[in-house]
Write a structure and sequence with these properties.
Elements lengths: L6 H9 L3 E3 L21 E8 L2 E9 L7 H40 L5 E3 L6 E3 L1 H7 L21 H12 L9 E4 L5 E4 L1
Length: 189
């Protein structure tokens, strides 16, 4: 963006190397401090890297006795952890955004969704699937419950397609009839 990278922190970001300055006011890259910033008597900056590229930095300042190799080693050991935490946070934010997009698409398309743990048979449906089937959400369900709603003429084919999907041989894509709790027959895709 428009952020001008300069000063001693810029030195770390641009060079991608640790910088120790125990007299920052006399460092050749000094630019002064922003208004309201406390005086800076010592500085240690370590780059944050991802895939070999500098993406940020972590810095500490104002250690009265200054910084040396011991503090440098400690901060350099911490930097990958910080970098990984930032990557994870960004991934979680992206996942949250994608989940929200999916939720809006599912609701907008009036789609029923379900999840089934093949080991425990723990199954959950979203509220729209209950609505599509006309089922009371308070009634317990299992992995087999959905099959109870499939029209008897379509059931063998749907079971076969579901089993192939479970074995990861194919995606589950099908059109079939369901018989709702009230007896109404509907097509489902």
């Amino acid at each position: 963006g428009n952020f001008h990278i300069h000063g001693i922190y810029g030195h770390v970001l641009l060079d991608g190397k640790t910088l120790i300055s125990n007299d920052p006011t006399s460092h050749p890259d000094r630019i002064g401090l922003p208004e309201g910033h406390p005086p800076l008597i010592s500085f240690l900056g370590v780059p944050l890297k991802q895939k070999g590229k500098t993406v940020g930095m972590v810095a500490v300042g104002n250690r009265e006795s200054g910084y040396g190799h011991r503090e440098q080693a400690a901060l350099e050991a911490l930097a990958p952890v910080i970098s990984e935490a930032l990557v994870r946070r960004k991934a979680e934010e992206n996942l949250k955004r994608r989940e929200e997009h999916l939720r809006l698409a599912v609701e907008g398309g009036h789609l029923g969704t379900w999840e089934r743990d093949l080991i425990t048979d723990e199954t959950s449906w979203n509220s729209l699937l209950y609505d599509l089937l006309g089922r009371n959400p308070n009634n317990p369900i299992t992995g087999e419950t959905f099959f109870e709603y499939i029209h008897e003429d379509d059931l063998p084919r749907v079971r076969e397609h579901v089993e192939k999907a479970y074995r990861r041989q194919t995606e589950f894509v099908d059109e079939f009839r369901i018989v709702r709790e009230d007896g109404e027959v509907r097509w489902m895709a």
